[in-house]
Write a structure and sequence with these properties.
The chain is mainly α and 234 residues long. The protein is built from 5 helices and 4 strands. The chain has helices spanning 4-81, 86-121, 124-167, 172-185, 207-214; strands at 190-194, 197-198, 219-220, 227-230. Bound molecules: zinc ion.
Length: 234
């Protein structure tokens, strides 16, 4: 008959093993998440440069419009000076006034774009730094996990050995049921009795069951099927 203390050890070993395996599985997922952050930051930088270029080209095309308008006004002024009638003079004058107005609007627009380009240009270092930082975080996590995974693999091997030696103490008949439970539920295959109830499903044990467990009989919870044991440290 296994000592109840060895059943507690068995449960604990299952829990530690499950935890170590989960940590080992989680690592690559966490690495992938950090890789996708790097790709996102790199894309942000590409988009940033593209937008900056677009704004600069926009400012250039507006400057060309401004130059054309300036030339047009110079031409109109020449025509104004050689106007052949008052009516022609008024038409040119009105045209110049309208074009000067358009020029002033265009100048404001260009200033606004240049201001925006200046503000955005100042952010370049931030975008570049964000890429560097994401890559550093990825590298540091990856190397940390590499050394941690070696430790985890070692401790999994130790725990598996320990588990096998504890399992060898189980009588053969409950052992088969125990194996089926472990295969489907992992550490949840076992449950410490707490305040007279199963720790997994909280259903109370009968007085007879409690006595049986205390005398060293391996019992399974009549409600959830867990292998029950008394945790004397509780
Ligand atoms: Zn139960």
């Amino acid at each position: 008959m296994p000592a109840t203390n060895s059943l507690r050890q068995l449960h604990l070993t299952h829990q530690q093993l499950e935890d170590a395996r989960q940590q080992l599985e989680r690592g690559p997922i966490q690495i992938k998440a950090r890789e996708s952050i790097v790709r996102k930051r790199e894309q942000d930088l590409v988009d940033y440069h593209a937008e900056l270029k677009r704004q600069k080209m926009f400012a250039d095309s507006k400057s060309l419009d401004l130059n054309a308008l300036e030339k047009k006004i110079v031409d109109l002024k020449v025509k104004l000076n050689s106007a052949s009638s008052n009516r022609e003079f008024d038409i040119f004058k009105e045209q110049i006034r309208a074009d000067e107005m358009a020029m002033s609007v265009l100048e404001d627009e260009i200033l606004e774009i240049i201001d925006r380009v200046d503000t955005e240009t100042a952010k370049q270092a931030d975008y570049e730094q964000a890429v560097v930082k994401a890559k550093e975080e990825l590298d540091s996590f990856r190397s940390q996990f590499e050394s941690k995974s070696r430790d985890l693999q070692d401790s999994i091997k130790d725990l598996e050995r320990h588990l096998a030696s504890l399992e060898s103490l189980l009588p053969s008949e409950p052992k088969q049921q125990y194996r089926r439970l472990v295969a489907s539920r992992g550490a949840k295959a076992m449950s410490a009795v707490s305040n007279g109830a199963c720790g997994n499903c909280y259903v109370n044990l009968t007085a007879q069951q409690r006595i049986q467990i205390k005398t060293g009989i391996v019992l399974f919870c009549s409600s959830c099927g867990s292998l029950l044991y008394i945790d004397e440290t509780l």
